[in-house]
Structure formats: C-alpha cells, structure tokens
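To whoever is on call:

I kicked off a structure prediction for a single chain this morning and the downstream step that reads the tokens threw a length-mismatch warning. I double-checked the sequence; it's 764 residues and nothing unusual in it as far as I can see. Pasting both halves so you can look.
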Amino acid sequence: MDLDSLRFANFSDLDAAITDWGQMVAKLKILQDDAKDDLKAKSDKANWAGDNATVTRAFVDKTAGEFADAHTQAETIKRIITDTRGELDSYRTQLVAAIDRGLKKNLTVRDTGEGSFTVTMNIHPDRAANGTSVPEHTQADVDTFRDEIQNILKNATESDTSAAKVLTLLVDQAKHGFSDASYKDRDSAAKAVEEAEKVAKILQKDPHDVTLTELNTLNTTLASYKNDPLFAERFATQVEPKKVLEFYAGVADPYQGMGRDPKFGEQAKQLQKNLGITLGTATLSDSDKMQAWEEKMVKLGPDRLGIDDANDPTGFGVMSNLMRFGDYDDQFLNSYGDKLIAYDKERNVEDMSPWINNWNHGDLNFWDKNDRGRDPMTGFMQALGHNPDASTQFFAQPEGAGKSVDKDGEVNEHLKYLTQDRIWLADPTLDGDDKFNAGKDALGHALESATTGYAYDSDPMTGKDPLHPGSGDHRTAATAGVMEQVAYLYGSEKGPEMLHKQSELADSLGKMGAAYIDDIDYSLSGLGNQKDTDSAFPAKYDGRANFSEQGAINFLSVLGQNETSHGVVSAAQHLYTLSALDAYPATSDENISYAKDALTTGGEARGILDHARVQQAETDFTKDSEEANKSLGRSGDWITLGAGVVVGGGIAAIPVPGSTAAAVVIAPVVADAAGEALNTFIGHQVDKGVDAAEEDPTKQAQTTSAEFYQKGAEDLGKAYDTYSESNPKWDNPDRTEWARDIESSYINTGSNQDDFRGRAPYED
C-alpha cells in the first residue's frame, strides 16, 4: 500500500458499501425467515401429488436453503468489510500520529510510489528561516521513524490484501448460488487462509524428511480447521493432488515406519482422518481451482504414483483410504466412483485381485483391524456411507423404472455389480478376523445411507452426526427408489444365497428394512397395489416406496432367515404397530378399523419373519436340535431392544445394547411422539432388560419352535390388550373375531403357508 493512499484515504465509498451491505443483510434476513416460515412451511404441509410432490417441493426446499446461505454470505461480507475499514482507519491514525512525532524531530516522509517511501529532514538547517530553531535528530531516530512507518504500511497492506483474498475465496466458494461459510471478522478469515498456506508447505516436502514435530503441527492445524471452508480450499489448492497422495502414502507406509519414533504411527493414523475430512470440506467449494483439483484427482485414480512407498499404489489405493472420513462433494464422489467401478470391473477375476494379493503390502488404513485398506472399493463404500446424498445418487433407480421394481432392467448397474458380480475378499490385519469381510460390511454402510438419508453411523436423535444433525425422517422418493431395488434383489430367488454369503450385510439390511417398515406394511396390506391410499399406514414422505405385496413378502422372508436382520426388523415392526395403536384411539369406526389393520398386518409381517427364522434354524441345524433351539432363543431376544428407545420427529431410534451409534436403528412411527402403548412397552422393556441380565444367557437362548410361535402370538395378544386397556370406553363386540384374525394373520402366513408366500430357507 502506498503511503499517501493510506495517509489521505477517503473511506466514503467503503462506508457506503458497508451501509449497503448492512441493508442487504437486513432484507435477506426477512427473506430468509419468510422462505423458512412461510414458503417452506406451506410446502411441507401441502398435500401435493405428482411432480409437485417431488420436483416442486425439492425446488422449494433448495430455494429456502439458498435464501439462508445468501443471508449468511452477505453477513460475512459485511463483517469483513466493516472490520477491514476499522483496521485501515486505525492504521491511518497511527500513520498520522507517527508523522507528527517525526516532525518534532525534524523528520518527515515522502511517498515514492509502489509502496516505497523515503525519510527526509522536514526543514534543512541551512534553509531555516532566521530565528527558527530546528530540532535535532540522530541516525537512530531516523531508523526508528523509518521502521515505524514501514511497519504501519506493512500491516495496512496485509489488512487490505488479505481482505481482498478472503472475499474472493468466499465468493468463489459457490459458482451458482451462495456459500454458507461464516466468519466473524477479517482476522478470523485471514487467519484460516494463512494457516492453510503454512501447513501446505509441510505437505510439499518429501514425506521421508518430515519430522514428528512437523507432522504433529500438521495434524493439530488440520484438526482445528478441517471443517473451515476457506482453510480447506486454500490448503488443497496449494498442493497438487498427486503430491497429496504421495505424501500420505509415504507417511503411512508401515515399512517406512521401521526405526521411527513409535509416536509417528499414531500421527500417521490421525493424519488419515484429519486430511480426509479437510479434503472433503475442500471439495464442497465450487471455485475453478478446486474443480480442476477434483478432476485431476479422479484422473489419477487408475495410475500408479511411481513411488517406492506403500507398494507404489494407484491413486484409487490412496484416495479411497482418505475419503473414509469427511463430507465430500456429491458429484466428486460419483465421478470418482464411476471411474473406480469401470476400472474394477475389468479386473474382477477369480484369484487375480489387483488389490488383495500376496505382493500388495500397501496397508494405508489405520482405523480397522479387519481392513488393511488395500481394496479401494471398501474405502469408497465407507465414503458413501458417510455421504447420503452422494450414495443415493450413486445407486439411483434407472430412468423409466416402473411403479415398483420387478425386473433386473430396473436395477442400477453399480448396485447389481457390487451385490451380485464383484468378488469381495477379506483383508484383515494379523490381529483381525479373517472370516469377516470388511468390504461387504462397507457396502452395507453405503446402502444404509443411500436408503435412509442418514450417515450409517449417525445418531439421529442426539444430532451427534456432523453431516446430518437432528432428528426426523430423511427419506425421499430418491432414497425409496434405492430401497425398492435392494428389496427386489434380496427378495429374489437369489436373495437367500446372497444374504447368507454376505452375512456382513445382515445388520445393514435389517436397518434398511426397519427404516421402511411403514412402507413394507403398506405394501403387505395389498393397498400398495391399489390407487386408494387412505389406510392405517400413512405416507411419511412423498414418493413412498412400493414393494408390491409379493415383493414385501419375499423381502421379509429373506430378512427373517438371519438372526440379526430378523431381530432388528421385528423390533421395528413391533414399535410401528404400537405407534399405530396410539395414533388410532377407539374414538371412531375409522380409527378402530385402522387399529385392526395395523394389528393384523403387523401380525402378518411378524409371521413371515418368524416362520422364516424357524425354517432357517431347522435347516441350519438339521442334526442338532439343541443348537436350533439356541438359535431361536437368541432370535426371541429382539424384544429387549425396546429398552432405551427414543421417539421424536416421526422416528424411533432403537439403540442396540452394548453398541455404539453405528448400531442405532432408525424406524418410522405413525405419530411424531410416543403414546401410551409405545411408552408402556419401552418402560416395560427397561425393567425386563435389567431382570434378564441377571439370568443365565445359555438358558435364555433355548426354545422350541412351538414356544417361539407361542411367544409371537402372545406378543400380538398383549398388543391388542394394550389397545383395549388404553380405550376403556370401547366395548369391542367382536373381540373373539379380532383375536382369531390377529392370530390367523400371524400363524397362517409366510413361507410356511405355501410356496408362493416367501422364499424357502437357504441350504448350503
């Protein structure tokens, strides 16, 4: 900055800009509130059908979000401009004061252009007027005066240029629309950019020359700024994609770690996570530099890096391990995944995996003893598991699919390849379980996020998931489209074999079934095949999943074959039925009819699941009735999942005892909050869970098929009794008929009824 530019600065234009932006912020706040409380609120409540229910509502939601982002961006711009104006005014005051002090020692400054200046005597003693006393000064006074002026100009220049830099970066974040990046002042935004440039220099070094101190600095800074949009973009664009991959591979290579400080391994582990999250945040920017960076990264995927570290991995081999963590741009993940799938398909040969073999020792994953990180498809599936919108797009139902999926041509090619054709190999460490396939488990995580709209390991009730905080139903017509395909594939004739050979997916398939239990019941009731949508199973979102009656039966019968998926879906079904009883008190004939439909359809669903479980146990343990009984005993313990259930926002979160958030099951309920029937069940299970913990688990886990069915019928009977007790003024004249219908729906259904009511048990 030139000396005279600061000294004689006229801030009137800047003041006018601040005023204009202040007015803009106020106006956008009004528009934001109107969009949220009026436009979006009306859209959410509107009973739309057809394109209005999907396209229009999505457009309204996006528009409301844009108004919020516009307000955030305008407010940030105003803060930065206001802060910069204040700083420049302060520096001008400091400059004028310094010049005044200089005059007292007969020193002044002269602007020489392009940021330079000279210090001169204000009045030369030889030219001083008669009688004028000229102050004296020393060379030290000159040097001090010069340094003070130089420091003021340096700070003013930094304030001005950094403001211009962060404003440009901020605006470039969103090529179309607005950025939601928020900063309280210029200093905080400029500090983020400065820190990014500083630690990016570490990544530009040879990874073998990086010290433990430098790696610790890198990790500490990334951990602090990994979710900061300006930091992330500036950091990423300072380092070429290939160099990022080479650096991580060099740091992470276990053989390079020989002789290193043991703490280096922990730093490398944290780098995988911190770098992955930071790069994900960077991809959310729409700037031209970041778009070019992403294109280069995708292009690098199939190529080897040409390094000695980590067995000279491909770009896929490194990047897939970094993207296990973080919120990535949907288009980037889909472009990356398309290229990875195409590359993988060409090399999908039995006993010739390009990834997991005796010569590939490029272990690049530090976070799972059952997954060395050699198969990039596993890391990519984990990335989709944390990015629901991207996974929903990746597995989207093909254009032109029918009302419900009923043929292979209506299934996404990526989904068919990954579930039916790809050869998945286990990749455990020496301490891992060689019978557990982490790749299949990761595929389940990706499908969970694609169908539920939640990251697979999120906790929807507490909002601990940073990508999708808060509670509520995140299903859409698009997620339902993926779910219809999953139900078709695993409910097909190949379904039992697929589930049994992909047992790592059982928990994920159970969660998916639980998440759509309302739509499954709707299809099971037969109403899904009719135009009349008025039923005991109201649509909780637009474009609900339609499995067809037979499709729902087939899918449930396969889920019932596995202990895990049987238990998860049974718990969700029971909760949903009880929530329906709460939602339909016996205050009208319509409500009573709905309550009965909920009980009988719930009984049918439970019957399909239980019949499948009994048949599979008998098939698995043909010559060992004790083991079959133990298997059924374990399957009967699903009811203890009721302990700790939290209901709110139209969903129930079912925590599996002793597990982390990754095992939380999300299931819809009819009403937004729990009623008497649901609360009684949840409270009862808390007490029962405590009592059961004191019993011998080996005794608990033994039952005969007859006892298993009897218990199922008793549970349904208790549900009816709960409804009757909750409505004391209701005198049901058809009590016997109700009991008969409910029991019949449970006993006389499922694969036990005939060959057309579900899939037969799997025989190895």
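Update from on-call: the warning came from a stale cache, not from the record. Cleared it. Sanity check on the structure: Confidence is low (pLDDT under 50) at residues 466-470, 689-694, 750-756.
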